[in-house]
Amino acid sequence: MYLSLSSSLSKSMAMATETDENVITESPNLTPSKGKMITVLSIDGGGIRGIIPGIMLVFLESKLQELDGPDARLADYFDLIAGTSTGGLVTTMLAAPDKNNRPLFAAKDIIDFYLENSPKIFPQTPQSFLIGSMMNLFGAIAGPKYDGKYIRKKVQELVGQTRLDQTLTNILVTAFDIKLLQPVIFSTHEARTDPHKNPLLSDLCISTSAAPTYLPAHYFKIENPAIEDLEKKTRYFNLIDGGVAANNPTLMAMSHVSKEIMMKNPDFYPIRPMECSKFLVLSLGTGTAKLEAKFDALLASNWGLVGWLYYNGASPLMDSFFQASSDVVDIHTDILFQSLKCQKNYLRIQDDTLTNDAASVDIATKENLNELVRIGNELLKKRVSRVNIETGNYEEVEGESTNAEALTRFAKILSKERKLRLSNN
Questions:
Q1: Who contacts 109 (Cβ-Cβ below 8 Å, separation ≥6)?
Q2: With the C-alpha atoms ordered 342, 344, 346, 350, is the resulting torsion angle positive or negative?
Q3: By C-alpha distance, which of 12, 188, 200 is closest to 103?
């Protein structure tokens, strides 16, 4: 379905003439206060495995287009889109405005973006194939595996001077400040009130995807012209991949909305914080490696710095950080929704059966990219699953539908919610 490369990306959509309620044009202010629900989309980090949630988004957007017309875009339906690392990149692509003030990318364009640009972001050099593990080990010690020049140039070309406060729907993107040793959460809401938290979208994308050992950290600064005090006028950022703090940003997104409610933001108020029956949350994973017990305590007890950073083609330390972060968030969110009797309002789609190159974040060969597309399409056919707290495996839920059917149900709810807000606007 998506095995061919597109030589050019669709970056502008002609605005439709509004002849009936199903045609999407530039959206009015359709906030949750005009409807019944708060709608949240969350996308994990995972390098080139961003293709997998990309396939889910293509399917969801196609169902919305069946209901509301070909100009429907995901940004028209979600009150908040949150992303970390590659998920932050996708989030920005879905919400950044084009010259017609419509989303820069349709969901289907995201797959083409990954297929076309991943081999340039993560170049597979002949030396890496010939020398293999020795070169990877040397790279893990000597510096980042990739120089990051291509992704910096590409995102700057795509979003130019667009800033966070200009996104078409609210977004939240995570990063981690290596100088302050604390997470940094960038959001559209905060960008509109605090100039120091209103970066260029290009700086945001580069920062959230700066995975340690793979891509270099990113430095930038933001000046607030309204402040005269020279010491307070400029804020400095020294950022790496937000995955070290929140590879799965679902809880970050829900907490952010709850904070806005507590601050009586009129967009959300008077919904109560963490009132899960009023939340509709779609959380998309980027896939994890099949549980093969390739590490154990006896083995790890002998590792030093190099062993934790690199072992047999993997990075045990980074893998542990990212997978633990994602699973803990999923477990907590799932239990929260179940305990409040609204589990149908939360949908987590994840594949934990990846093997070989498909489990990597950077093996961007044509064969592996196409394999990730296949895995994404197969994931649509699998039944809705939940993580088993004891084993860590995702297990199909008895009596549940397929992921495709669950996304179709979500599309109907999203479409109905948007129509309600239009009628109340």
A1: 6, 9, 10, 11, 93
A2: positive
A3: 12
Residue 383 DSSP class: B
E strands present in 28-102: 38-43, 80-84
- Token pair in block for residue 119: 């081999």
Residues 381/367, Cβ–Cβ less than 8 Å:
no
* CATH number at 32-424: 3.40.1090.10
Tally of CB atoms within 10 A around 306: 11
Is the separation of the CB atoms in 42 and 284 below 8 Å?
yes
The CA R_g of the chain, rounded to the nearest whole Å, is 21
**Domain residues of the chain, as ranges?**
32-424
Where in the sequence numbering do the catalytic residues fall?
A: 85, 241
3-state secondary structure 246-273: HCCCHHHHHHHHHHHHHCCCCCCCCCCC
Q: How far apart are CA 102 and CA 110, in angstroms?
A: 15
DSSP type of residue 163: B
Q: At 111, is the secondary structure helix, strand, or coil?
A: helix
- Helix ranges, 310-402 (H): 316-339, 366-381
Indicate the DSSP class of residue 101.
S
Q: Is there a contact between 346 and 281 (Cβ–Cβ < 8 Å)?
A: yes
Identity (one letter) of the amino acid at 383? R
Tell how many helices (H) and how many strands (E) occur in the chain.
Answer: 16, 10
Q: Which 8-state DSSP code applies to residue 15?
A: P
The dihedrals phi and psi of 81, each to the nearest 5 degrees, come to -115, 125
Provide the residue-wise pLDDT of the chain in tens; the chain has 425 residues: 444 334 333 333 333 333 344 445 555 568 888 889 999 999 999 999 999 999 999 999 999 999 999 999 999 999 999 999 999 999 999 999 999 999 999 999 999 999 999 999 999 876 544 444 444 555 556 678 899 999 999 999 999 999 999 999 999 999 999 999 999 999 999 999 999 999 999 999 999 999 988 899 999 999 998 898 888 899 999 999 998 889 999 999 999 999 998 888 888 867 777 777 889 999 999 998 876 656 778 888 888 877 777 777 667 777 777 777 777 888 888 888 888 888 899 999 999 899 889 988 999 999 999 999 999 999 999 999 987 777 767 888 888 899 999 999 999 999 999 999 999 87
Angle at which helices 86-95 and 51-68 pack, to 10 degrees? Answer: 20
pTM value is 0.88
Per DSSP, 146 falls in state: S
Q: Is 302 helix (H, G, I), strand (E, B) or coil?
A: coil
The amino acid present at 52, given as its one-letter code, is I
* Percent of residues in the chain assigned helix, strand, coil, to nearest 5: 45, 15, 40
